[in-house]
Amino acid sequence: MIDLILxxxxxxxxSTENTVTVTVDIAVKDGKITAISPNFKESAAQEIDLEGKLxxxxxxxxxxxxxxxxxxxxxxxxxxGTLFEGIQIWGDRKREISMEDVKNRALTMLKQQAAQGILFxxxxxxxxEPQLIALQALLELRDExxxxxxxxxxxxxQDGIYSDLQNEMLLEKALQxxxxxxxxxxxYELTRESGVRSVQKVFELAEKYNRLIDIHCDEIDDExxxxxxxxxxxxxRTKMGSRVTAxxxxxxxxxxxxxxxxxxxxxxxxxxxxxxxxxxxxxxxGRADTYPKRRGVTRVKELWQNGLNVSFGHDCVQDPWxxxxxxxxxxxxxxxxxxxxxxxxxxxxxxxxxxxxxxAKTLDIEDNYGVEVGKPASFIxxxxxxxxxxxxxxxxxxxVISQGKIIASTIPAATDFSLTGVTPNCSFVEKSVSFxxxx
Length: 439
Ligand code: FE2
Prior knowledge:
8-stranded parallel sheet; globular
């Protein structure tokens, strides 16, 4: 007996040159997709008529710091709005962290993300703290939620690898404890030379422990911050290519065009992934500018046009670096469309892919990702016509299905107008989220 059939859903494929939409039934058994067909004849224990709603692969959060989420204002507000005041505030806040503190906040966030259609999350864990509490907490949580959420943990040396004698040792210990990826922050090392050395160290550790790489790279407006070329050079040398990700790279937005043009060629040879974080970097960057103020994002459009894999992440939700946010990847894509000038029709579709399929490529989880027969039944249903409509309305998913089970459903709000001479009744987005399952 089939467990679940979702009937009359609209499936969009981005896999060809042209976007193709077909109306299908999807059958689910034992957590996997067993059939996708225009008119599936069999019946199931549970059936839902989707009435033409959009079926989409789940959202992928490719960059977030779950250890610092939901701490905005603790112990104080970031009044300057800069990255560096954020690091100072987090330095004070993390003296207070405990396993329980990190796990409670991170789990709250993961539920919030799942309700909004995110089923794959890459989180960074600060490993500059000598007890490695954040890392331990997030590794435990990774295992506890694996039946409904896939979490990757990056060992992230927030204070730099060479700013303190023990940080190098802590980073390696984090990999021995089971972190999925190794990170770095070369632009925050004390000298340019330490920054270069830190990138080389990250690659050395990744090769030694066979891990992915995700480096916070050039997250600054300084056009002289050029560690991306070092990451590209190391990726070319080691042939690690798609196992390497450069996050932020906001300085790339300030490089002169002659250098940027040369760099794009190197990046095409390196074939590394990029993650831009439009919500946070539009607020963090440009703080030292008068006018004109820079937008604080990397060259998303140019990277995409040159065939490089770009995804979007939140980076932060309600923490010392970014006090807003709800965890919605459609909010992220919406901001990306605006500040990256991605308003063309094909460009809006590309931004949708930056919070879905491109993120899956970055996380190296493509074997278990996508709405295809034989893959895990992990997908979402949106009351939207297409990806453009989804980004425009930023609607919450009607259903979130993870590994064959409906884990969250949201009933849209209905707003009634009672205005004389105006046709009443119009409805718009979102309201109550019901979370089934044992979360
Ligand atoms: Fe980050």
